[in-house]
Amino acid sequence: MGTFGIDEEVPEKIETEKVVELKQKPRAFAYWAVGGEDYKLKLTTADICQLEEKWGRGLFNVMMAGDIPALGVMLTVVQTAVKRWHHGIKFSQVQTMFDQYVEEGGSLLSLFTDVVMPTLSVSGFFTQSQREDLDARIEVMREDL
Questions:
Q1: In Å, how far are 113, 117, 124, 128 from 64, measured between CA atoms?
Q2: 3-class DSSP state for residue 37?
Q3: Domain residue spans in the chain?
């Protein structure tokens, strides 16, 4: 038997215990339920860059520059996040969807907490622990309504 290589050697089978770590897989999309349809929402890097160029500053800064962003800002984020799966969707259509959302019991605040923030979350704006903290804070906001 040669000194180098292990091609010819077959070691005894050693029983090993496998440790499996379960990680919570991030959600792939956020969803906006309007008129009986669930719209997929997620921003790509190109989408984020497009919005930042449009507004002349970072999207995170636009979204967190006060209490709740302006409705037009939130609907623009929604339009951008949904366009990949609903090609050609116009801003006026998103506005009409928001009107229907309100008629179905939604509100400006619920659009922010239930649609926009989850969209930012699935689009890479937060770490896992930040997402968990954000989810807890949003739940508190919902309870306060």
A1: 12, 10, 15, 19
A2: strand
A3: 30-144
